[in-house]
Amino acid sequence: MRSLVLLLLSIALPGQAIAPPYFVPARQIPGIGVKRSELSDQVLAERTDLMIETQTFSIMRESRAVDGARRVTANGKLQSLFRSAAQRSGFPAPTLEAIAYLESWGDPKAESPAGPKGIMQVSEATARMMGLAVTHATRYKVTRERVQVKSKGKKPKFKTVTRKDPYTVTVRDDRLIPDRVIPAAAAYLAGMEQKFGGRDWAVFAYHCGQGCVGRLLDLTRAAGGIPPGQPSVARMFFSANPVWNRDIYETVEREMQRDWSPTYWFRVMRAQQLLALYRRDPREFASLAEEYKSDLVPGRAPHRLTVWLTRGDLLFHNGGDLRSGLGERLLVKAFSRPYFFGYSLNIPEDSSADWQDRAKGTPAAIGALTYIAFETRRLYAALVPAGEPFRPLDVVSLVESEDYARRLSEREAMSHVSGQVFDIDDSALPPREMECLRFVLDDLGWAGYLGFVDEGPHTLHIGCAPRARDFFASVFQEASASRRGE
C-alpha cells in the first residue's frame, strides 16, 4: 500500500511581491483547493493513487469484505466465467471481478432494495439493454368470502363472493444466472468503453449511467486546463473546484449527493488491488480488514475517525490530566489571532476548572485546523475577490476530558478525549465560504490527510489521518514561529 506520497511533494510558496496579511505555510500540499487549476501530470498521478488508496475504508469496513474476496477469487466456476467473458469481450477479467466484488460480494442471488439484482447488480432496464431476459407473469390469488346482501325478510341472507386479486411473479431472470449475466455485463462494459473512449468512463457509467457520463464527458472535453485527448475520469474529478471549471464541480457534487458515483472508478481500482492482495496473501488481507474495524464504535465503522482513533488514544480522563505533565507534554494551545490564523476560538465557557485547558489540542490537530483555515481562505478569496471578507472559522470544541465528554452525551464527544480532533460550527459562515470549507475538507479527505463527519446540522467533527500528523505538526511549528503569531 502506498504511503502519503504527497507529503514528500510539499513545495515552497513562490516569492510574492506583497505578503498576504495572514499565515501562509511554506510547505503546501500540491493540487488542493484553489490549486486544482494547476495540476501537473505528476500531481494528478499522485492524487489519483491517493484517491484510490482512500477507498480502502469504504470497502474493508464491511463485514462481508473477507468472505466476498474468497467467494470471488476461489470459486472455480466464477473464475472460468470471468476469464471467458474477458476473452470474448476484451474487457479485463480483474476489473469484472472487482465490479462483482463491490456490487454483490460475489453473491449470485444478491438483491438491492433499489431494484438491481444478481452478482453484477444489474437493473431491469439495463438487463434488457444487455440482451438478458427478465420475464414477469400475472398470477391471481382467488379468495372467497360470505357477504350479507339486502333482504326483505327479517332473516339475513348471505352469498359467497369470489375475488381474483392479481399479482406479478418473475418466471425468468437472467440477472440471477452468472453464466448469462457475467458475459452480458462484460460485453456491455466493452461497448461503453468504445462509446466513451476509455475503460475508466465505462466503469464510471456502469454505476452512474450513460446519460450522467455523457454530460460529464462533454463538460470535461470543454473544460479549461485539460490537455486535448486526455479527458480521463481522474482528470475530470480533480480538475474542478468552486472557482475553476465550476460546471464540472456542480455536476459532480449533484452526483455525489445522489449515490457517490463519481468515486466509483477509484473504488473499483482499489477493489482490483485488494483482490490481488487476497490472492497473494489471504492472511494479510484479513489483517487489513481487522485494521478497519472501529475500536470505539461496535459494528461497522461509521466514518474514518472511528478507525483512526483507538481506546488507547483516549488519554485525558479528567481535568487534572489536562493540566498534568501528560497534558503539558502532548497538548498545545490553539492560536488566538482570528484574522491572522483564520479561525476563532469559541469554546463554551463554564465554571469548571478545566475550561481554559479545553482550548488545546495536539500539535497535529492545531496544525490541521490552521491548514484548513488557510486553504479555505485562499479558495474563498478566489471565489469572492471583491465580496464579503473572510469570516474566521468558528472552533467550538478541541480537547475534552472524559468526565466532561460524558456529561455532554454527544455522539462524537468521547473522541475529543484524545486531543486529536476538533469541531467547527459553520452556521454563521456566508454560504460561499461554507461551500469553500466543505470543498477543502473533501479535497484533503480524498488525498488521505483527514476525515470529517457532520455532527448535527451545523457542526463539523474533524481529525487528521495518523500518517498525516507529522505534516500537520510541522504546520503548527511553522505557525508558532511566525513573526505574526503569538
Q: Any descriptors?
A:
single chain, 486 residues, alpha+beta, Lysozyme, 3 domains, 5-stranded mixed β-sheet, two-stranded antiparallel sheet, 21 helices, 46% helix, 13% strand
Domain tally:
3
Distance between the termini: 40 Å
> Biggest β-sheet: count, sense, barrel?
5 strands, mixed
Report strand order across the widest sheet. 4-6-7-9-8
Percentage of residues in helical conformation: 40-55%
| CA-based shape | globular
Number of strands: 9
Note the beta-strand portion: 5-15%
* Pattern of helices and strands: HHHHHHEEHHHHHHHHHHEHEEHEHEHEEH
Low-confidence stretches: 5-17
Secondary-structure-derived class: alpha+beta
Number of helices: 21
Radius of gyration: 28 Å
State mean pLDDT (0 to 100 scale). 92
How would you describe this protein?
With 486 residues, this protein is of the alpha+beta class. The protein has 3 domains: 62-129 and 176-275, Lysozyme (Orthogonal Bundle); 134-175, no CATH class; 294-481, no CATH class. It has 21 helices and 9 strands. Strands 4-6-7-9-8 form a 5-stranded mixed sheet. A hairpin with a 7-residue loop joins strand 1 and strand 2. Helix 1 (41-54) packs across helix 12 (264-280). It is globular. The relative contact order is 0.12. Residues 5-17 have low confidence and may be disordered.
